[in-house]
User: What shape does this take?
Amino acid sequence: MKISEKKYQEQLIINEENERLKYLPYLSIVPKYKSNRFEGEMDEIDNLNIRSIPFELINEGVGIAFSIHLEYLDDNEKPKNMFNIAVAFKDNYKNGHNILGVRAPIDTDVLRVQSQTEFCLYLTAIDEKSNQVDPTTDINWKFNIVFYDIQGRQYKQSYSFYTSTGSNKIVRINSYMPQLIK
Assistant: This one.
């Protein structure tokens, strides 16, 4: 009887996971202006040491994504003189910080299967005194997008890409599988 109950509970877990996967969105990103499959272009904004990066967000999963937004840092981790900072924050090689922020938010709350939307990130670098400096290195940027599926389960999907600020190129974009949060 105990073995039968154990197998029944295991089957319930498997069935629940299969049901969840039937509604799982998978959001991939590509640079909006790309010269080939792996490279995109960054634009410098008015010589302000800020480079904008427009992306397309595409739902390649089997379910609709709801309430899509970039995951922001806590306010106490943000540099004091930067606004709309969010998605990546890490030490630079010169005791500064690289910042990846949101210039324009994701412009939809519902992203259907095979649909796409646009958003724009910008990158800059700041020194230890929170002053902007010219980002002159190759940088690995990381950020997360949080969304819900049709069943109301929350997911976090991680992304990373490399930039070469010397040549304004975006290379090697990685999209990871969504992780169930709750």
User: Anything to note?
Assistant: The CA atoms of residues 30 and 56 lie 5 Å apart.
